[in-house]
Amino acid sequence: MLRPVELAIAMRYVRSRSKNRFVSFISLMSVAGIALAVAVLIAVLSAMNGFEHEVRSRILGMLAHGTISGLEGRIDDWRYLEQVAAEFPGVVASAPFVRGEAMLVGEAAVKGVEVRGIEPARELATAALDKVLRSGDFHALQAGSYAIRWRRSCRSASATRW
After folding, report:
1. pTM to 2 decimals?
2. Beta strands of 55-142 (E only): which ranges?
3. Is pLDDT of 15 > 90?
4. Which residues contact 150 (CB under 8 A, 6 or more apart)?
5. Which residues have C-beta within 8 Å of that of residue 126, sequence separation ≥ 6?
């Protein structure tokens, strides 16, 4: 809190005498500029905290925080590596997957895509996929069914849901 001595010194430089009006104007503008800068800084930090929360919950909820892959892309003894990874502190869940590239050909477009083969029940432990589906049900996926769900009403191949 301001005590009377500090307030008296501050007011001495803000109030103007008849010959020092320019010094008072400069002092007042400096104080106003610093106050505005602090207000903007507080607003930006608040917005960035909200943005960081959204990034963590939406984007990182969909992707694995870490991936173990073989030197040539294939791991033959993945069950052993899964047990080793589970022993590390902070590892909550793991799920195996296979990844490959494919091409989707539609009536209006051809798109290159990355296809991931997953075990549906185990994938739910690592990603929030069931929360972001707009249509369909993640629990309807059956292990070993090798199916891509296609909706005829889509305008392009990139709009399909599988």
Report:
1. 0.51
2. 97-105, 110-118
3. no
4. 160, 162
5. 64, 92, 93, 94, 95
